[in-house]
Amino acid sequence: MSSSKNTILIILAFFSIYVIWGSTYLLNKIAVTELPPFMLASMRFITAGVLIFIIAKLMGKPLAITKRQLINTAIAGFLFLTFGNGIVVWALKYVDSGFAALEISAQPLVVLILMRVFQGKKIKAMSVLGVILGIIGIYLLVSQNEVVSKEGSVLGMIMIFVCMVSWATGSLFVGKADLPSNYFVNTGYQMLMGGVMLLVLSLLFGESWSSPHVWSEKVQWSMLLLVVFGSIVAFTSFNFLLKRVSPEKVATSTYVNPIIALLLGWYFLNEVITTQSIIAAIVLLTGVYFINTKKKLVLFARFRNRI
To answer: Is this model's pTM higher than 0.70 or not?
Structure first.
């Protein structure tokens, strides 16, 4: 691959994980105003999973996996998509899209705490500072009267936090689980399994299903964009970047996604961005930076050396 072509692909890939992933909150918010949440998420992931299998087959990638890998993809699909995403879509009925994105940006904080609790991993000084800032940022975010006064908003915030725990658990699980070696096939199985479980949930909750041709035009476009770009293009870009640039650069999407979501929610849905939300975002994302960075806290290190 030529250098110039590679550079263009990297730029496009970063655009995907920055803007497309950031826009999925807006798209889900638009769609869930008309569609039942579990039906919406189920159709999105089942369709994306089937399309990924078709693409993988055209690329000559084998789809056969072991029984253990099938079970593991089902577990990952449940933690990431069935619960981790399906409940977030449900919560978007009660909270703004930008607010949800900001709360979810604290995901690295939850992962770090779970690694400490279940794996006994030591939390470094920079990460300790990040956790403190993250907790302060979350408090500033969820303690706003404009937010908690909305009907169902408190329950929505709690469920989003539970979803973050599910995502964090899934992140730890896939790190050690036996999964298909091809990331494209792995993703296809996770989406299909997660989508089928969402289908079961939708039926259990008695959601009313409808055909896409009766949806409004904006919902049709939202679903199309969620399937093609949010589920396939962005994830492929994410894995492409992991092989081309450093993980730290890829992780910058953690800081950009909520900003994109806030701006899109404000522009298209007239969602209010309060001063406290802006302060909370700065504090929270600074905390996430400290958690992700590999640099040492110089002042702390000097103090410890003197002791």
So the answer is: yes
Angle subtended at Cα 163 by Cα 78 and Cα 250, rounded to the nearest 5 degrees: 90
Residue appearing with tokens 């910058």 = 252
Round to whole Å and give the CA distance between 214 and 270. 26
Note the pLDDT tens digit of each residue in 160-214: 999 999 988 888 888 788 989 887 898 899 999 999 999 999 999 999 999 999 9
CA distance 213 to 199: 19
- Distant-in-sequence, close-in-space partners of 195: CB < 8 Å, separation ≥ 6: 41, 42, 43, 44, 45, 46, 47, 48, 49, 77, 81
Q: Up-side HSE of residue 266: CA atoms within 13 Å toward CB?
A: 13
Maximal CA-CA distance, the chain = 70
- In one-letter notation, the amino acid at residue 80 is F
Q: Whose structure tokens read 């956790």? A: 131
Q: How many residues does the chain have?
A: 307
Q: Distance between CA atoms of 302 and 287, rounded to whole angstroms?
A: 21
User: What is the DSSP secondary structure assignment for residue 261, as one 8-state letter?
Assistant: H
Task: Name the token pair of 182.
Answer: 């091809």
DSSP state of 213: G
